Amino acid sequence: MELYAVLSLIGGLAFFLFGMHTMSSSLSKMASGGLERTLKRVTSKPLLSMLLGIVITVAMQSSSATTVMLVGLVSSGLMQFSQTIYVILGANVGTTLTAWILSLSGIQNEAIWVQMLKPSHFSPIVAIVGIVLLMFTKTDKKKTIGTVMIGFALLMFGMALMSDSVSPLAEKPEFQQILQQFANPYLGLIASLGFTAIVQSSAATIGVLQAISLSGSMSYSMAIPMVMGLNIGTCATSLISCIGANTNAKRVAVSHLTIKILGAVAGLPVFLILEYFGALPFASAAVTPWGIALIHTVYNLLLTLIFLPLSKPLARLVEKLVREKKQEERNPVFTLDERLLKVPSVAIAECANKTGEMCSIARSVLQDSFDMLFDYKKETAAKIEEQENKLDLLEDKLGTYLVPLGTKNLSLADSRKVSEMLHTIGDFERLGDHAVNLMKVSREICEKKIVFSEEAMQELHTAIQAAGEILDLTEQAYRTGNAALAHKVEPLEQVIDHLISTTKDNHIDRLVAGNCTIEHGFVLSDILTNIERISDHCSNVAVALIELGHNSFETHQYLNGVKSGDEEFDTMYTGYAEKYGVL
């Protein structure tokens, strides 16, 4: 029976941890881009930043996950170290909600409506509703809600299993002797610290303590040091996550640990002194699950209130503890930390920002190449090559990052966004290549002093004007996610194809008439081919944006559809054709 009780305790902990993981990851999935948008609002205002920390931690049900996310954001250069301290303080408060939910297991009232608040009574109902949502609904959001409910039910089942296993153990002398060892506050603090560091969940340690408290074997004097210890132990996750990170990211994890250690170093002696002089008459009383939740909350609130006005001295202390390395790169062109993969919605939002940046760079660099096509400038040429190299780097790093990101547990919207980015980053990179190609053509025109006929120049300017418009449409559509603008790209792309075909035919006529040379033809063909490819890549981006809303990337299906009697397409095509003199 003792072995069965121990196995039940361990099994209950396993269910608890799995339920917590399932619920936390699904809540993060539901938040989608909301977490990223919330973090963008972090400012130097302490109360607002602290509130954001509370909200994020409640949404993710884990202060460790919040801190790991902050480590990743700082490591990627998306946040400053000084901004994170207030968020961490808020996370310390937000994590106490779990303890209050778990404390419902201690309800003793016999009233039916009160008894229904006990996890062992309502968690089966939650599980049933969750499985119905998961198996019989079609929308991604409802299925995710169902997963959250199942995770919650598993968590509560694990809590109940731990509580039931402790009852027979509490009667055993061996178990009582072990508990008596924890009457030593220092041993209790170290034990809870070590256990929390191993399971990497303060909520799990809280759950175990609350399960033990139901047996009446634990006093307040035993629980208080252990709560201090588990608050230090929860820092293990962020400390592990900062291995290999830059200096500022390490400072985030160390600041979290410093707050907890200073809290215990100052708090434990105060508690022991008050207990020694009898200022805490409840210290010897048996603690309840509610009491443990209260200790956890009061302790973290006190830490927050103490360190809130001391955030700047704390930051200076941490900066001295973790000194910056001289060889560390201060401003990398682009980096997204792998730690952000733990919060996919935030990683996706930042990838989307960088993909949008690629779009704007491609548009800007092509405009430079158009402007200098017949007026070559070395400075502009150097700038074009520099920006094209940046596009290459962005495409490589984004592609490498998006592939593993796409395998995570994503919402339908996030999954579509990853697919869209994977489809478009190559097009943006190729647009940069065409800018370099046009720059080389410009250099050739300058070096060989090539002069086109007036008619050829007019046709080229018309094609360049149309290419500029399709680039503008593509950038605006992509940066704003405007599908209506994206629908305008393909009709214009067809007009550009017609323009290029007409220009090539006219060149042959001029060549036959002796008004142009073969050399002129090679250069003209290079320009027209690059413009045609530019419009093709714009079309690819627009189609990806349009198909994103239909969860499909069947490019040929869309293109065949608009070309086979689509009235709206025909109207837009006619408008562009008249504008650029194709009709």
Q: Can you put this structure into words, describing what you see?
A:
With 583 residues, the protein is an all-alpha fold. The protein folds into 2 domains: 2-321, no CATH class; 347-579, Methane Monooxygenase Hydroxylase, Chain G, domain 1 (Up-down Bundle). The chain is 78% helix and 0% strand. It is built from 26 helices and no strands. The chain has helices at residues 2-31, 34-40, 46-60, 63-75, 81-94, 96-102, 112-115, 119-136, 140-170, 173-181, 185-199, 202-213, 220-233, 236-241, 247-276, 289-307, 311-321, 344-371, 378-405, 412-447, 454-480, 483-486, 489-513, 518-548, 555-563, 567-579. Helix 12 (202-213) packs antiparallel against helix 16 and helix 21 runs antiparallel to helix 23. The longest helix has 36 residues, at 412-447. It is elongated. The N and C termini lie far apart (91 Å). The relative contact order is 0.08. Mean pLDDT is 83; it is low at 329-333.
Q: What is the domain total for the residues?
A: 2
Query: Nearest-angstrom radius of gyration?
Result: 32 Å
Order of helices and strands: HHHHHHHHHHHHHHHHHHHHHHHHHH
Form type: elongated
